[in-house]
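Pasting as-is:
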Amino acid sequence: MKRMIRTPLVRLVDDDDAFRESQREFLKAMGWQVEDYAGAADFLERDDLSRPGCVCFMRSKGYVPCKDNSNFSVMYKK
């Protein structure tokens, strides 16, 4: 049976659209595959958790990962 090698994905999570987009473009220019998310809830709804890679949470002043103030680490474990 042939095993597929999956390219690791860099996941960017930030509520600042302009900053997130600039970081995405920078990482893509460096050769990384990148997916970006507007917040933790967006990440949890859209991400393919079976794909290897990393998650980068960029925290800006006053940033709350989930609009309902829930704890992301608790949500992620469910």
